[in-house]
Amino acid sequence: MSEMREAAMNSKAWPFEEARRVLKRYEKNPPEKGHVLFETGYGPSGLPHIGTFGEVLRTTMIRRAFEVISDIPTRLICFSDDLDGMRKVPGNVPNREMLAEHLQKPLTSVPDPFGTHDSFGAHNNAMLRRFLDTFGFEYEFISATEFYASGQFDEVLLRAAARYDDIMKIMLKSLREERQQTYSIFLPIHPETGRVLYVPMKEVNAKDGTVTFDDETGREWTLPVTGGNVKLQWKPDFGARWAALGVDFEMYGKDHSTNTPIYDGICRALGMRAPEHFTYELFLDENGQKISKSSGNGISIDEWLSYAATESLSYFMYQKPKTAKRMHFDVIPKAVDEYHQQLRAYAGQDITQRLNNPVHHIHNGDVPESRMVVPFSMLLNLASVSAAHDKETLWGFIRRYAPETSAETHPDMDAAAGYAVRYYEDFVAPAKTYRAPTDLEREALTDLRDQLAAYDGPVEDEALQSIVYAVGRDRFDPLRDWFKALYEVLLGASQGPRFGGFIALYGVQETVALIDRGLAGELA
Questions:
Q1: What is the CATH number of domain 439-519?
Q2: How far, CA to CA in Å, does 365 sit from each of 38, 292, 368?
Q3: Which of 95, 370, 408, 488 is most exposed, with minimal Cβ within 10 Å?
């Protein structure tokens, strides 16, 4: 066993823990299908969103971890439930009146309101694939419409008809009494109207593989369950899809967790082993409410990527997936800086530490060097005190602090400067609130100002931090009150950077001038 594999078999990083659970399925015999199958599902009624990114990213991390500990080939399928009936007209599309005529039809039978694809489902599938391709995910795409119509699902659908009563027992336990009266796991697609029908079954004929039902007008129909004439309700579809594909692993949000016994039970009733699952906690907005794509609270993927690179979002997604996390704009700077801290740490770590480092999983072991010579949070403070409206203003400070850097040699630094200006203008500037110093703070600020004005030592973080520390140490208990005063009086914020590093970057004489303005009441 290689050193890497041995370390991975003992790693406490959650992708390796999940990968080992998947491998345990095949400790006695390899999979008959010749590979291990990871799956993510997608409802194509709307645009891909940040949850879609997180689900595919995290599944990919587990897949890559599995490939470290096993030689069994892997596949990742992204399954689009595009045979689902369109229940309502989305509010963010053109030609809504036209769409209203096609309610309850499968999304792949609804005309594309954008006029670019064969159907609304095809349009949304194309958006999903473009979305996944943008981030470089490796996956195979399966459309439910094609899966049903091509016959790939036929064997499992016939088995569902044969074991109809067993599957209905599993489902009926979870339904209210009034729903139990009309519920069926099968949803016929009307041969004339093309609509997905929610009607009770008069007969399920396992021998012929057919269902008989009355439509809304009272006409009786008999349809084969195969060939795309009938689809399964979404909960049975979940378990049946696992059975048909031989899925080994699927993750989903905590809001699905109560359905896990149903999904598993249906998969087993259809004669297959249920997959391993991973239930992740949901994202919350700034008020602690669950993020919803319909209500638009929280932050979207496009919004995140307006203020930081993709890797920072991947880092955020990696962190504690089983813990509910606030996902709002104020988490972005911390995610950026922590990501680069981990990049810098990686170079000096041993193999065990590297496998536990998030950046190993973000970059699949091919970890780049961090070129961020100035933390993102520091860039925000620079933007704040200099009222920067373009990244060139920040580069003036960066080049003086680190003369060997440039936009050409440090492209991630250049991108971060642009992100910082945008973030500052949208979030920092509107929230800045300065205050006047207290008498004790004024005394300390004057002392710091005078020491900096007379300073002729090296313009280095540690040397300058020692001065800041010494000024506050004898006056403030706890010492954090001194730093809080610096941030609130000089930066208009309740928290801020390591102040010695800030002085080195902003400039000693520039900091003296800033303190003078704070003491003169020009900032508050």
A1: 1.10.10
A2: 20, 33, 9
A3: 408
User: By 3-state DSSP, what share of the chain in percent is helix, strand and coil, each rounded to 5?
Assistant: 50, 10, 40
H or E element in which residue 296 lies: none
Strands 276-280 and 249-253: parallel
Q: In one letter, which amino acid is 449?
A: R
* pLDDT one-digit tens code per residue, 297-336: 668 888 999 999 999 999 999 999 999 888 889 999 999 9
128, 78 contact by CB (below 8 A): yes
Report the 3 state secondary structure along 308-371.
Answer: CCHHHHHHHHHCCCCCCEECCHHHHHHHHHHHHHHHHHHCCCCHHHHHHCHHHHHCCCCCCCCC
Distance, in Å, from the CA atom of 130 to the CA atom of 335, rounded to the nearest integer, reads 25
- Under 8 Å between Cβ of 346 and 334: no
- pLDDT for res 414: 96
Whole-angstrom distance, CA of residue 111 vs CA of residue 56:
28
Please give the structure tokens belonging to residue 294.
């319909």
CA–CA dist 236, 163 (Å, integer): 12
Query: What would the pLDDT profile of 232-253 be if each residue is shown by its tens digit?
Result: 999 999 999 999 999 999 999 8
Is the pTM higher than 0.85? The answer reads yes
pLDDT at 293: 54
Mapping DSSP to helix (H, G, I), strand (E, B) and coil, where does residue 129 land?
Answer: helix
The band of 479, judged by pLDDT with boundaries at 50, 70 and 90, is very high
Instruction: For residues 184 and 198, give the distance between their C-alpha atoms in angstroms, rounded to a whole number.
Output: 8
Distances from the Cα of 219 to the Cα of 197, 206, 214, 216, angstroms: 13, 22, 5, 8
Question: What phi and psi values does residue 481 have, to the nearest 5 degrees?
Answer: -65, -30
Q: Which residues pair with 252 in a beta bridge?
A: 279
Query: Distance between CA 441 and CA 46 in Å, rounded?
Result: 54
Tell whether the model's pLDDT for residue 32 goes beyond 70: yes
3-class DSSP state of 41: strand
User: Domain 3-181+231-280 class?
Assistant: alpha beta
pLDDT band at 343 (very low <50, low <70, confident <90, very high): very high
